[in-house]
Amino acid sequence: MENTVDSISAPEELLGAEIDGFRLESLLGCGSYGVVYQARHLVMDRLFAFKILFAEFSNNRESVNEFFRESKTAAKLEHPNVVQAYQAGRTPEGLCYFVMEYVDGSSIEELRINSPEQLSLKFLLEISIQLADALDYAWRSRGIIHRDIKPGNLLVCRSDGKLKLADLGLAGVGANAGSGEILATPLYMPPEVATGQKSTHAVSDIYSFGVMFYELAAGKPPFTGSVEALQQAHIETIPQPLFEANPDLDPELAAYIDSMLAKSPEERPQSWAEIKERLTAFKERLFFSQQIPVGAAEFLSPDTKVTNWEKEAGNNHSRLIIAAVILAVVIGAIAVMILL
């Protein structure tokens, strides 16, 4: 017997259900307020991510409004590095849903746990540059800040390695966002948010990004502990410099990431455009110049090491050819002298 949307007590029970032209085929993940399925559109035969608000929140007007605000926010953003929104609605039974682009890949958090060897510095810079471009677009075009930058919200497409920014559930528009309630994942919480202030500018997201980059580059976050301990640390504690946490990093890059963790928002980099420009410059210098900086070699991805090895091999080959030509000229000169 086919599942119906008005008789569900657990997320797994919805598998196989058909909702407004979509069939729910597998469970992708659960959060505090909802569950996400992989769903197939029955007419187009195409996969989507199908997010459903938990039934216990469906009769709460504030929860429903917040749920659909996420879909509205996502629908305003059309960028290649942002998960696209396609449809939202409510069934006659009261089920609230939101249909998004399905990303076939893994989150950075999943890679960090299951395949940390993939998180090379080159890869991390490439992903960060794409993220900075997406957030610069969101801020400049719509005044939107994300409010929950963390590895779990960054998806990497399996086919081309492209970044997709997901979960705009906490996103807001400038000064109109929120009422002072603390809305952030504790590990990545900006100091101003930890003190109960509103997150109204891109520099708050920049702090969270700095914490995430630090964690992925150092192999550990700048702060650990309970929610209360993390909140206090974000407000008061200066983290260990990133270069000390990972001496294999380029010192200038490490110092730039440290600047994003400044307690005062005014002391951080002030725009995503600047961050994109600086990270692009670091990537060019570290991975596309002839010289590899001292201390960076052990943090290069395997493909970069091969590329530099090939460059050196090519240089050696050229030197051998030149030496052979010089030797031939000398031998010829000696032969001429003997004949004379």
For the record, the count of structural domains works out to: 3
Radius of gyration: 26 Å
* Beta-strand residue fraction: 15-25%
Query: Which structural class should the secondary elements be placed in?
Result: alpha+beta
- How is the largest sheet built, in terms of strand order? 1-2-3-4-6-5
Residue share in helices? 40-55%
* Unreliable residue runs: 1-8, 172-182, 292-318
Number of contiguous helices: 10
What is the fourth-level CATH superfamily of the largest domain?
Transferase(Phosphotransferase) domain 1
* CATH class wording of the largest domain: Mainly Alpha
> Which fold name is given in CATH as the topology of the largest domain?
Transferase(Phosphotransferase), domain 1
Task: Give the termini distance in whole angstroms.
Answer: 105 Å
The beta-strand count equals 11
Describe this protein's structure:
By secondary structure, the protein is an alpha+beta fold. Helices cover 42% and strands 16% of the residues. The chain has three domains: 11-101, Phosphorylase Kinase, domain 1 (2-Layer Sandwich); 105-298, Orthogonal Bundle (Transferase(Phosphotransferase), domain 1); 305-333.
Which descriptors apply to this entry?
340 residues, alpha+beta, Phosphorylase Kinase, domain 1, Transferase(Phosphotransferase), domain 1, 3 domains, six-stranded antiparallel beta sheet, three-stranded antiparallel beta sheet, 10 helices, disordered N terminus
What order do the helices and strands come in, and which of them pair?
Elements: E1 18-19, E2 22-30, E3 34-41, E4 46-53, H1 61-75, E5 85-90, E6 96-101, E7 105-107, H2 108-114, H3 121-142, E8 144-145, E9 154-157, E10 163-165, E11 172-173, H4 191-194, H5 202-218, H6 227-236, H7 242-245, H8 251-260, H9 272-287, H10 302-339
Antiparallel strand pairs: 1-2, 2-3, 3-4, 4-6, 5-6, 7-9, 8-11, 9-10
Helix pairs in contact: 3-5, 3-9, 5-8
